[in-house]
Design a protein that fits this description.
Largest interface: A-B, 59 and 61 residues
Order of helices and strands of chain B: EEHEEEHHHH
Oligomer: heterodimer
Bound molecules: FE2/S2 (inorganic) cluster
Helix content of chain B: 25-40%
Number of helices of chain A: 19
CATH superfamily of one domain in chain A: Aldehyde oxidase/xanthine dehydrogenase, molybdopterin binding domain
CATH topology of one domain in chain A: Aldehyde Oxidoreductase, domain 4
Largest sheet of chain B: 5 strands, mixed
CATH superfamily of the largest domain in chain B: Beta-grasp domain
Structural class of chain B: alpha+beta
Helix content of chain A: 25-40%
Shape of chain A: globular
CATH architecture of the largest domain in chain B: Roll
Structural class of chain A: alpha+beta
Strand content of chain A: 15-25%
Amino acid sequence: MAHDPSYTNQEFKVIGTRPPRPDGLDKVTGRAKFGADAFAPGQLVGLILRSPHPHAQIRKIDTSKAEKLQGVKAVITSADMPDLTNGNRNMLDILENCMARGRALYDGHAVAAVAAIDMPTARKALKLIKVGYEILPHVTDVDEAMKPDAPIVQPYVRTTGVEPKPKKASNVSQVTQFGHGDVEAGFKEADVIIEKSYKTEQTHQGYIEPHACLASVGPDGQGELWVTTQGHFAFREVCAKLLGMEVAKLKVTASEIGGGFGGKTHVWMEPVALALSRKANRPVKLVMSREEVFRSTGPTCSTSVDVKIGAKKDGTITAATATLRYQNGAFPAIWAMLGAMTSYACYNLKNVKTVGYDVLVNRPKVTAYRAPSAPMAAFAVESTIDQVAEAIGMSPIDFRIKNAAKEGTRASYGPKYGPIGIGPTLEAAKNHPHMRARLGKNQGRGMACGFWFNFGGQTCTDLNIGVDGTVTLTVGTVDVGGSRASLSLIAAEELGIAYERVKCNIADTGSLGHNDMTEGSRGTFSSGMATIFAARDVIEVLRERAAKTWEIPVEDVVWEGGQAVAKGKAHGNLTPLTLSDLAAASPNSGGPIAGHNEVVADGAGVSFASHICDIEVDPETGATKVIRYTVIQDAGKAIHPDYVEGQFQGGAVQGIGWALNEEYVYGEDGRLQNPGFLDYRIPVCSDLPYIDTQILEIPNPNHPYGIRGVGETSIVPPLAAIGNAVSNAAGVRMTHVPMSPPRILKAIKSEQAELAAG
Amino acid sequence: MSAVLVTTTINGDRTEFVCETDETLLDALRNRLGLTGSKEGCGTGDCGACSVTVDGRLVCSCLVLGVEAEGCEVNTIEGMADGDVLHPLQAKFIEHAALQCGICTPGFLMAAKVLLDKNPNPSEVEIRFALAGNLCRCTGYDKIVRAVKAAAKEVRKR
Ligand code: FES
Ligand code: FES
């Protein structure tokens, strides 16, 4: 593992080791309880009726027959979920997404729901609900949706960010702009200018566990929700608000989560389950089918992006622009804005300008997917970077190194960078043996860089010492990929004890203060920070207890190697008191020993990655094979390197799927054609080689251990890295993701035709 | 409603359950018997999260009817460890961090066990193809393949 001592001199004892994770045994024996694995006495089965139309007025919903069916305990429509949002349009959008209000906005939009004693009855009941639809014209393509005569998805939306303020509704919900300098002047200085347009298709996070919950609300206004989520505290607040419940009266427990990647940051059917339960006064279990997951939850945007980059012969980029059009599904969001912010974050540019258009279409509401919006922008920018490098006769890696952002660079989205890792990842890529591996026939190599902000946010953590000296660490950030192990390591490090003596639990919303979602790569960053402070809090108490026992001033007691040690000549003969000693004495020395911390963890460190890959293209069929893949990323500090590598590898492979195969296919009828894993093909084991990883550690100066957060950046470079590799292998520039065999073949054929004609 | 009584052996124990004739083995295991270790990721035979063995054959239990298990020996993830001793695959999955979220893990373990029972010395390619019916969205499969290799070595020692 690369480690640059000039950045840090911290010596760690257990941080950086690879112990087994605390939830490992439960997960290899089938004992771990996920969203669909809970049962409650008297529970009912919930099912949702969904619109088959991409856009339709709902004239009438007749639920009378369903209600009369033996075994049906509740049927609800939007009438049972009144608008209590008090003019908060964002909340109303969430409510409307959970249950259509007068209009179905996409294929798969919920229109009614039932709770029944068993699945066969619930299915029968759904069939008995009669919905009168009046079909409206629809639009599912981002560029089509921007045309002046496109059907309007949300009549209330007026474009923000343009002057004068528009009076007419538009599918463009906002226009955002970032950058600095004078791009026109910059392009005039350029020896070479490359301008190109790119498209990426919509993909899904594809977590293997469908959304699932068990909801229970009584007439006394109290409720419980067991749910697979990335943030049970946020779910509690949203659900309570939408249902008119008091926050404290709704207890939300996060189940083990079977993957989220951003898709479980958002409520989809949990408010519906609660509403059903309230109406039936029985617990209701609601589990989505895979088809529902695809049609109705969290995909990422499809995009259309124009990029223009100019450079001098010496390799200096003189100006760069990007115009990014991202579809957000049927509800306004900020995805193009994030794309516009991240586009050029890797580079040190004098003149740069990016403009984002957030666009509404009749598709499901887009939600975060791992470094949301950055991969598509990176695909367009990094593909163009390669072409500029080629045009001026520089190697892609040297061209990137020459223009890489560094400490002090003003980022294209505004701030000045502190110590950052883009330069070091590029240098590491240049020196990596992968760069020297021989390429075979029809094989091409590509590389690309990526950036993600990372987030901090609100966190609250408890650390309790048991009478036997073991440590209970209670956190409120959901463990999506091994954070309990990392946080236990951090507690052990601070307290100077063995990892095995710490047990980390995820608290329900009744047991701890508010914690933000596990998103933005914040889990280990922010809960790690709170754990450090909570442990230091505990050490204060331990020192006091030791001082009291010894009857010496607390200033003379230090905490060293897991024990209280008396310092100073006067106390030379005092035997150190271990954590266990102090814990055993605690009932008589002042009671329970506990530490606590609540923090808004500011200062998440930006993170950069460089990926290299080799792809073989079959010129006859357009089929591709990934031959080698290497991920190099700055982690700040790798707490548990296994799980850091795991994040790198997982993100890279999701990116590989996105680049080569995965795509939402909408028919002319506006319906999703491939809502299943058979036709929406994610990478399988036999598609892939080992994914090589290299962890760099350029500490984040804003975190006591230097942690940056590692979960997201790894999905940013793959689309572009693979795009560059495929283009090099096939001898034709690929501009449309996914680069599925038909698309590659078409590109090869049209290039050949052009050559023949030319 | 046309429930029938099914008599099977599950993880070595004679087990009876009642299920509808159109009910999947997966639903019977999970909802009737409380064996929720087998997961439903798709319900259409595409993800392998529901993998179990029926008379030694690896199947997607979401594609098998409960009534088809009549007279058969069914093994699930809950029966993989031998008392308090984990199967080498289970131990190596933990040791090699071959799981992140863990929802796919029971299915991978069942599929890998069937592989190692037949071929205790599989190559990387053989492992990759034997596990190609199981989807994992978290790991990129790298550490899974390594864990299976390491477990195979253990199995060969026994
Ligand atoms: S649930 Fe059976 S294969 Fe996916
Ligand atoms: S570990 Fe999450 S799907 Fe495999």
